[in-house]
């Protein structure tokens, strides 16, 4: 973002400030990154959690 903001500047009384187009470009980049993140989340496969019963030696002895 810093590269985008500093590459498009306007000089005002000797002070360089980012142009409106630079801010617009940053917002578009941020929106695209958010959309890409949302798509990645949607592509994650959700499965049913498997339940496993683990018997310890104490538990096995009390059953037998």
UniProtKB/TrEMBL annotation:
Keywords: Membrane, Transmembrane, Transmembrane helix. The chain crosses the membrane at residues 21-44. This is Uncharacterized protein. The lineage of its organism: Bacteria, Bacillati, Actinomycetota, Actinomycetes, Micrococcales.
């Amino acid at each position: 973002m810093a590269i985008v903001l500093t590459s498009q500047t306007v000089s005002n009384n000797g002070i360089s400030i980012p142009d409106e187009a630079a801010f617009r470009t940053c917002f578009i980049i941020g929106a695209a990154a958010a959309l890409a993140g949302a798509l990645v989340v949607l592509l994650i496969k959700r499965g049913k959690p498997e339940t496993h019963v683990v018997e310890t030696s104490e538990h096995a002895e009390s059953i037998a």
